[in-house]
């Protein structure tokens, strides 16, 4: 079933033509300094029909044949054919459910609204999709005799959790650099529990990113951030899986939060690859949503991407995307242009209220998903998203990682935010009549 002749390699995104094998430790073009991306032998992939690929992926989906039951490795030929199956490090990632948000959609006037629950994964975020590919490639290189003593990343939480878990499973040392005091307790405990060497630095994400790039450049430690395009290859399977879950029909819109911008780049790459192979006949429109306090892409979008200027990111509830100088900016702009994309921003109050509103309809959203939902509400209100269009919001992490944020919202303890949808326990004596009377009043209130 598996044909080893499928090939992939690194190639410079600038078009200068520089290429590298995937098993070389390299992140930027040695000729022009630009980022690299993974390229595939499209002609070899085209030797099989679009129907063949769709049926093969459906046959493998959530099955038990190693490693193809993973929703990432089930698409191995289009992701990373260079890794031998015995070196794959997988935790059955992908295959997350698509939540039909019919009640929320009805409230805002979009009847075909869905939320892709990427947080329903091993470490609770979509970062697992990319980390399985990167750590597997490291294991492959180590098996080939390359000296890679450890893998490192800068993180605001989710990347470090995924790296630590996959390295622990593979028996490879992991090093994570976190901005001290800017990561939630559930996110901090994940790399600690998985045995990662964890540094909490007195800086923000961009400061951590600067240090990890210096260390990996000088010490032969492998870099695991999204400037390493192996991560993008795993994350692009979100696109393939989305259309697969809708019987290979393409949605009209996909809305995704953006920080370092590897996620929107990956999303677009998946759709563009399927289009090139003839698996889909159209592309969806994409909205990349940013927090107003960390919005360099949005500011560039207002100038039609003619100029880009990094910003100093301010504190935001969406801590994982508190990034002012995203490394994947060129890749993201290219995808947005190719897919007639838009960029929207959300204030802190809009983020918090969007989470609470979605939670009231059965979801349990992280603040980054709140950014995407707030953008959705704005686009619908302005008539950019039409009532009859199919819209998919990408939920990037599990809400249980952010219980402190949720509790503070309902306790009115978030600075500068008035919680319009706060809901707290009702404290009463253990008296039947008092409880019954209050029950009836509350039922009447919430039923209005």
Largest sheet: 6 strands, mixed
Unreliable stretches (pLDDT < 50, length at least 5) are: none
CATH class of the domain at 98-124 and 231-410: Alpha Beta
Strand content: 5-15%
Derived from helix and strand composition plus strand pairing, the structural class reads alpha/beta
Written overview of the protein:
- This protein is of the alpha/beta class.
- The chain has a domain at 98-124 and 231-410: 3-Layer(aba) Sandwich (Rossmann fold), CATH 3.40.50.1100.
- It has 16 helices and 13 strands.
- The strands form three sheets. Strands 4-5-13-10-11-12 form a six-stranded mixed beta sheet, with helices on both faces. It has a four-stranded parallel beta sheet with strand order 8-7-6-9.
- Strand 10, helix 10 (262-277) and strand 11 form a beta-alpha-beta unit.
- The mean pLDDT is 95.
